[in-house]
Amino acid sequence: MGDSSRGRQRRNALRILFEMDINKTDLEEVVRNRKMVGEVEPTEFTLQLVKGVTEHRTSLDLMISRYAEGWDLERMPRVDRNILRIALYELFYVEDVPPGVAIDEAVDIAKEFSTKDSGKFINGVLGRVNRDSESGGIEVN
Fold it and tell me: What pTM was estimated for this model as a whole?
């Protein structure tokens, strides 16, 4: 499975998480609604990302709150918040994704789906997290 394919799957995971966030719904409902309009089932990697983010959301959000200096999680753009959740999930819970890839993908997705400043913001947050993680300064559960 190539990286471009994974890139598409990350974008799909973002769309699903965004929809869950806006509609205050769960993955099953989003998938059911998408099927009704003829969309295909999400891929395994997409589902892994969505389920992983959902399962670890509390610790991911705590990390975002700690590292997104000057930003209240609830006031952060939904897209940015979900891009960060996906990237942090990949950094800490997905074995076969190198940190650089997770961060670069998150920045690319932010540039594509969010504001012009989002790429820089997301790169800064993830860069700080990754530095602390590599120096052993972060524990995740």
Answer: 0.92
